[in-house]
Amino acid sequence: MSQVPPIKKWLTFVTGVLECLLFGGLIFGWASLVIVLKGENFFSCSSVVNGQENGLSNSSANTTATPVIFSNETRFTTLSPKNISDADSCAAPENKCPYQDEQLSLVFTIASACLSFMALPNGILYDKFGTRKTRIAASVMYAIAMLMTAFTTVASSEVLFASMCIMAASGGYLLITNMQIGNLFGDKRSTVITLVNGAFDSSSFVFLVVLKIYEGGVSFKAIFLFYSVATSLLLLRSLFLLPNKQFPWPLPQDYNYGICRAKNTRLPGADVELNHNHDAGELQQEALMSNGNAQQNEEEEEEVSTPELYYPTFMKGLKSGMFYTHIFWFSVIQLRNYFFMGTFNPWMTKLAEDNESSCDTVIRYTEAFAITQLFGVLCAPMNGLIMDMYRNYVTKKMVQDKQAGIESAYTKASLDLRSCVVAFSLTTFLGVLFSICVVIPILPIQYLSFVLQVILRSFLYGGNATFFCSRLPTSPLW
Fold first, then answer.
1. Model confidence, pTM
2. Helix axes 358-373, 445-471, angle to 10 degrees
C-alpha cells in the first residue's frame, strides 16, 4: 500500500483536472477569442494603413471596432467596450477585411501546430529534468505569453503569433505533466488519464468566458493581465502537489511526494517509474532489493531493470510498425479536428448566408460550439471506463482459464493493447460519423456535429495518452 495521504492524492487529482481545464488547451477556444481580437481591431485593414501613418494603437480614443461576422463579411462598428453588448451588431458592413481573417487564421494554424510539434522537445526536457523544474519554467513562459498578449497593440499585432505559440506549447506541457496522476489510482489509471485529457479539451470554453467578460465592459488588457497573475497557482501546485521527478508505476510502499512530504516516507529510488505489466508486489520487492543501498537523496535515481518482454526500449518502440501506424491514424483524425476548428467561422458564415439575420446566427452557433466544449471533461472518462472495464473483464477471464487448467488466449503483455484497440475502433467510428454530419449543409444538424466533435476529441486524446503509457517505456530516457 502506498502511504500517500488520500486527501493529498485526491487534491492532486482535482487540482490537476482544474489546471488542465483553466490553462491547458485554451488555443482550442479560438472561435470565441477571434471575436475579441477583432473587437480590438488586430490585423484590420484600416489599422495597417492608419497604424503606419499615425502610430495607431488599440487604446486610441478609448474605442474598439466590434466584429460581427467572419470570413469576407467582417463587420465593424466603432464603439466603447461598455456598449458592445448593446450594439446592433447586424448593421450594414462598414469594412470588409479578408487580410484580417487570413492573419487571424494563420495565428491559430501556427499556434496549434506549435502545440503538436513541441510535444517531443517537452517530453525530452521532462525526462531529463523532471516534473518540478520544467513545470516552473513552463509556468513562467505561460505568464510571459499572457503578458505579451495583454500589451499587444494594433500596431504590433504580429506579437500574437509569438504569444499564442508560447501559450499553446506551455499548455501542452501542463497536460504532459498531469497525465502521470493516473499512477496514483491503480486500476483506475486509464480513467484518470482520459479525464485529465478531457479537461484539456474542455479548456476551450475559457475563451467563451473571456468573450462574455469583454462584452461586459472589461478591457482586453485587464483580462490577460489577470490571467498572467493567475499562473502563480501553477507554481504553487508544482511545489506542493507534484513530485520532483515523476510518479512511479506501480507506487512503492511508503511513497510520498511534494516538498512538504514526511522525511521518512520515501523509499530509495522512489522517483523511478516501473512498468505496470508486472505484478505490483513483485516490482516493489524488486525495487527494494535493487536500491537498498542507494543514498536517500531526492536528486538521485537508480534504474530498475525489467524483462524486455514487458518493458520495450525506447528505440525498439520507435522501430515498431505499430508505433507508426498509430501515429498515422492519430494524425489523420487530429488534422480533421484542427481543420474543423480553424475554418469554423467562415464555414458557419457560409451556412448562414440564407438566413435573414446571418450574423446573429453565426454568433449563436459559435457560442453553442464553445459551450459544448466544456462537456469534454465529462465525455473523456467514458473512454477510460471502457478500457478499464475491458481490462478487468479479460483479467477475470484469464483467472478463470488458469483455474480451469485451460491455456488462456490472452497474455498480460497484450492486455493493455487489446483495450486500446477497442477504444480506437470506437474513436474511428465517431470520426466517420462526425465527418458525415459536417458535410450536410443544414444548420440544425451542426448541433449534432458539435456534440460528436467533443466526444471525438476526448476519445482521441485520452486513448492516445493511454496507448503511449502502455506501449512505450515510462522511465527517463536521458
1. 0.66
2. 30
Please tell me the number of Cα atoms within 13 Å of 242 on its side-chain side: 29
Element (H, E) at 120: helix 119-150
Residue 366: partners with Cβ closer than 8 Å, 6 or more residues away: 31, 32, 35, 344, 345, 348
Q: For residue 191, count other CB atoms closer than 10 A to its CB.
A: 23
249 in Cβ contact with 235 (< 8 Å): no
The whole-angstrom separation of Cα 11 and Cα 195 is 15
Alpha carbon distance 192, 180 (integer Å): 9
Q: b or e along 193-222 (b: 16 or more beta carbons within 10 Å of the residue's beta carbon)?
A: bbbbbbbbbbbbbbbbebbebbbeeebbbe
Query: 417-446 as b/e, with b when 16 or more CB fall inside 10 Å?
Result: eebbebbbebbbebbeebbebbeeeeeeeb
Which grid cell sits at 310?
A: 514487458
CA distance 426 to 456: 9
Give the dihedral of Cα atoms 13, 16, 20, 24; nearest 10 deg.
-150
Q: pLDDT tens digits, the chain, 478 residues: what are they?
A: 456 788 888 999 999 999 998 998 898 888 889 888 988 989 877 655 554 444 444 444 444 444 444 443 444 444 444 444 443 343 334 445 778 888 888 998 899 889 888 888 888 888 889 899 999 999 999 999 999 999 999 999 999 999 999 999 999 899 888 988 888 887 777 778 878 888 887 888 899 899 889 989 999 999 999 999 999 999 999 888 888 888 887 777 777 887 765 444 444 444 443 343 333 344 444 443 444 444 344 334 333 333 343 445 666 766 777 788 888 998 899 888 888 887 787 788 788 876 666 777 888 888 888 888 878 777 777 777 787 788 788 888 788 877 887 776 666 656 777 778 888 888 999 999 999 999 998 888 999 999 999 888 878 877 787 777 666 655 444 4
Q: Is 70 in contact with 365 (CB distance < 8 Å)?
A: no
Separation CA 256–CA 276 (nearest Å): 19
CA dist 45 to 91, 154, 258, 354, Å?
A: 19, 11, 51, 27
Contact 98, 43 (CB under 8 A): no
